[in-house]
């Protein structure tokens, strides 16, 4: 019996984000397409060589992408929305990038590209965004991009016979948006094209293809199950062998379905769902090659190799196995070796993409040749695991006892919303349709320059602080001048809404180069939450105080909520997420109370990522929402009745979570609505949401300056869904990505819109 190692996919962006820079230079017209292609080919070659050298036996191809693998799939099968006026046989790079990013005016290729990009949304429960396929009635498919074949050949020329990665047809359709068509109804046509692609890969010499069907870990309807049966009855009987690859959860009630599919191999995510191994082994035919996702592809923790060895030893004696990360390594940073600034004790607990392949290789070697064959790797792994379990850096008894002591009172405000509202109104004396913004003002090139000069030590703390004060003061004065009612300090001192807090809290570490692709060329460096969280000192009070001193209008205290901090970080795997979340909540609660003590009458706690933390299976939603809401309430319940708590959520789908939003009991919630014509207020209306709401009246994602009339129309519309006395007036989200030249006239118009509304009440 043999155990081999596969990787399922490697980070595309490059060790030093080379792809990002190559793309952005090409988009800016500073380099040519062939220069971009040369960089991309260089990265692919490097990735293959590297993975091979690290001990991977099975190398992926077509895991690379210039933008997104779902977009690649759309290009591969010629699913190009009509608005792109596509009239050729192939999707060229102009069209590809237009689908990704939108385009204006005729371009070199002669197409007219005055068109909006495809929609983008989160890839399952990750922070990676994919381009949503758009399909229409009468949709046809044909091979319109040879990328998957080209990359297979490219690897072959370098001496590697790869296992191409293909997004499965059913998941592709389930992720698509259909216009006048139910995407799954297009399955028969799509299967024709997939069959052709597989046949061509087989002809090129591909023995196996990794076919990703992550939708198999979701709740499925009968129709969706049938689609899987049809698809694999058709695709698995001819052509290359198929490694059906599932991840981000367990198969659960879909196991029977999967066990009956005529595929040649199955990959299981044993990090998210270790319990599925036993039933899967019992159900699967003996000839089905099992690929076990035993190393976490979604997180950065080093594994305990001896533990894994003992878990797998018996099975490895009975059947051939492939060991792999739980999912593609796309979601982890590339190489820990770049992290020279990390505390060495913490660094010892970590493993990035490169290290994860080494771990898999050591594990496979031990399973093939006996435990001693990986003696050194195993001892180091065991030592690190024990060190992490017992480290004083992780455990803080005080945090544990505070959490244990939390009772009902800690999660409930003293009085009901109605009673709070009365005293808040008396204290704040705001007009009807009060105006405010979500928090940030433009992070101009100057602001960024000052920040990076400060980081590099080119300007000292005092000079940087002085610069920020000038910016803040100017922003406050300007808000006062244009007549906003509730002001913000502008968040100029913040690099990012999570990082800023993480850097000041105990229990978080930050990487130098731990970049993970978010979308296209955009990467993020998620904080690493490694230990019990506490707040050594107030984080935002000084800036709030400075800003409040500049004005008599109320100045909002501005915080990021615990659920958002959690969801945008790499989190601990040695305790439940909910425990980590409650710890963060306690730290933010301290900050809320300090802001109140300093005199803040309004404190906003942003929960931008609450909804996206919803588990993939519906049966797990309630539990998540319960602890997420409780965490928010821990932060917000320690204040007096006359302190007004705001929250902000930037999305527009509330139906699933409206009860939870109600249970958060924030005095005011601001949400994103401008693009949806206030329709989403339906959810609030049918739930009879009692607290106040600021439905965003203009879309901050666009530089367009909204007319007063548009905003009064939206506010009038909003008043049909919720009582006008409950309505606040604000933009959809923070303004940090905008220019002052857009922000100024837009907010002046927004204030005018509120004033116009007031004359009607
Ligand atoms: N206060 C933050 C800002 O204005 C909120 C951003 C967000 O929720 N995405 O930037
Ligand atoms: Zn927002």
From TrEMBL:
An example GO biological process term is: methylation
For binding 5-methyltetrahydropteroyltri-L-glutamate, which residues are annotated in this chain's numbering?
Answer: 17-20, 122, 127, 522-523, 568, 612
Which positions are catalytic residues? 701 (proton donor)
User: What top-level class of enzyme does the UniProt entry assign?
Assistant: transferase
Which residue positions does the secretion signal occupy? Answer: none
Q: In which pathway does it act?
A: Amino-acid biosynthesis; L-methionine biosynthesis via de novo pathway; L-methionine from L-homocysteine (MetE route): step 1/1
Tell me which residues bind Zn(2+) 1: 648, 650, 672, 733
Annotated catalysed reactions: 5-methyltetrahydropteroyltri-L-glutamate + L-homocysteine = tetrahydropteroyltri-L-glutamate + L-methionine
Entry EC no(s): 2.1.1.14
Chain residues that bind L-homocysteine:
438-440, 491, 606
Keyword Transferase applies: yes
Q: Pfam families, alphabetically? A: Meth_synt_1 (PF08267), Meth_synt_2 (PF01717)
Tell me its cofactors: Zn(2+)
Which ranges carry the Cobalamin-independent methionine synthase MetE N-terminal domain? 6-317
Tell me the ranges covered by the Cobalamin-independent methionine synthase MetE C-terminal/archaeal domain, including all copies: 434-755
Q: Does the keyword Transferase apply?
A: yes
Q: How is the cofactor bound?
A: Binds 1 zinc ion per subunit.
Q: Please state which protein family the record places this protein in.
A: Belongs to the vitamin-B12 independent methionine synthase family.
UniProt name for this protein:
5-methyltetrahydropteroyltriglutamate--homocysteine methyltransferase
Annotated source species = Sphingopyxis fribergensis
Gene responsible for this protein: metE
């Amino acid at each position: 019996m043999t155990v081999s190692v596969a990787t399922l996919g490697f980070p595309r962006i490059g060790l030093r984000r080379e792809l990002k820079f190559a793309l952005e230079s090409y988009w800016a017209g500073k380099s040519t397409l062939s220069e971009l292609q040369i960089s991309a080919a260089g990265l692919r070659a490097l990735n293959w060589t590297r993975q091979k050298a690290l001990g991977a036996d099975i190398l992926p191809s077509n895991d690379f992408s210039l933008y997104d693998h779902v977009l690649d799939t759309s290009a591969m099968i010629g699913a190009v929305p009509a608005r792109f006026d596509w009239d050729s046989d192939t999707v060229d790079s102009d069209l590809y990038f237009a689908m990704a990013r939108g385009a204006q005016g005729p371009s070199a290729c002669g197409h007219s590209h005055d068109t909006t990009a495809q929609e983008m949304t989160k890839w399952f429960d990750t922070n990676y965004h994919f381009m949503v396929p758009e399909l229409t009635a009468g949709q046809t498919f044909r091979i319109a991009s040879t990328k998957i074949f080209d990359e297979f050949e490219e690897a072959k020329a370098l001496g590697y016979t790869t296992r191409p990665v293909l997004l499965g047809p059913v998941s592709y359709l389930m992720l698509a948006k259909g216009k006048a068509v139910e995407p799954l109804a297009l399955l028969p046509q799509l299967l024709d094209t997939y069959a052709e692609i597989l046949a061509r890969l087989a002809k090129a010499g591909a023995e196996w293809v990794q076919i990703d069907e992550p939708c198999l870990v979701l709740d499925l309807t009968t129709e969706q199950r049938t689609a899987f049966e049809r698809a694999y009855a058709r695709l698995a009987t001819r052509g290359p062998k198929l490694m059906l690859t599932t991840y981000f959860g367990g198969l659960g009630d879909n196991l029977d379905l999967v066990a009956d599919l005529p595929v040649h191999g199955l990959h299981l995510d044993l990090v998210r769902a270790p319990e599925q191994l036993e039933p899967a082994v019992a159900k699967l035919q003996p000839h089905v090659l099992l690929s076990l996702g035993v190393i976490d592809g979604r997180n950065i923790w080093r594994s305990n190799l001896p533990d894994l060895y003992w878990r797998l030893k018996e099975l490895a004696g009975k059947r051939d196995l492939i060991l792999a990360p739980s999912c593609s390594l796309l979601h982890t940073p590339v190489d820990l070796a770049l992290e020279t600034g990390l505390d060495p004790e913490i660094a010892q607990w970590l493993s990035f993409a490169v290290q994860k392949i080494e771990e898999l290789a050591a594990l496979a070697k031990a399973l093939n040749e006996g435990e001693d064959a990986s003696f050194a790797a195993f001892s180091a792994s065991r030592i690190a695991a024990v060190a992490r379990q017992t480290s004083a850096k992780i455990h803080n008894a005080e945090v544990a006892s505070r959490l244990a002591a939390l009772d009902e009172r800690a999660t409930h405000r003293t009085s009901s919303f109605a009673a709070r509202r009365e005293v808040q109104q008396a204290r704040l004396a705001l007009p009807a349709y009060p105006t405010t913004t979500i928090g940030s003002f433009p992070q101009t090139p100057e602001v960024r320059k000052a920040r990076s000069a400060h980081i590099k030590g080119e300007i000292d703390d005092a000079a940087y602080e002085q610069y920020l004060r000038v910016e803040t003061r100017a922003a406050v004065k300007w808000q006062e001048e244009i007549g906003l009612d509730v002001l913000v300090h502008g968040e100029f001192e913040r690099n990012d809404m999570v990082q800023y807090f993480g850097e000041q809290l105990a229990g978080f570490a930050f990487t130098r180069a731990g970049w993970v692709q978010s979308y296209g060329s955009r990467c993020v460096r998620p904080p690493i939450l490694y230990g019990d969280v506490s707040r050594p000192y107030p984080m935002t009070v000084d800036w709030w105080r400075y800003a409040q001193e500049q004005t008599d209008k109320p100045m909002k205290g501005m915080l990021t909520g615990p659920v958002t901090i959690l969801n945008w970080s790499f989190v601990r795997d040695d305790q439940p997420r909910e425990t980590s979340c409650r710890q963060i909540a306690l730290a933010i609660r301290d900050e809320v109370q300090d802001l109140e003590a300093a005199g803040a009458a309004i404190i906003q706690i942003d929960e931008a990522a609450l909804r996206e933390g919803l588990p993939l299976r519906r049966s797990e939603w309630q539990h998540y929402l319960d602890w997420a809401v409780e965490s928010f309430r821990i932060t917000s319940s320690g204040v007096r009745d006359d302190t007004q708590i705001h929250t902000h959520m930037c999305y527009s789908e509330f139906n699933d979570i409206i009860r939870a939003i109600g249970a958060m009991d924030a005095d005011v919630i601001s949400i994103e609505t401008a693009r949806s014509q206030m329709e989403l207020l339906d959810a609030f209306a049918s739930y009879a949401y009692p607290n106040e709401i600021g439905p965003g009246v203009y879309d901050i994602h666009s530089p367009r300056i909204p007319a007063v009339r548009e905003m009064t129309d939206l506010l009038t519309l909003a008043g049909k869904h919720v009582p006008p006395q409950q309505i606040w007036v604000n933009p959809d989200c923070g303004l940090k990505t905008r220019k002052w030249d857009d922000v100024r006239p837009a907010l002046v118009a927004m204030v005018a819109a509120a004033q116009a509304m007031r004359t009607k009440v």
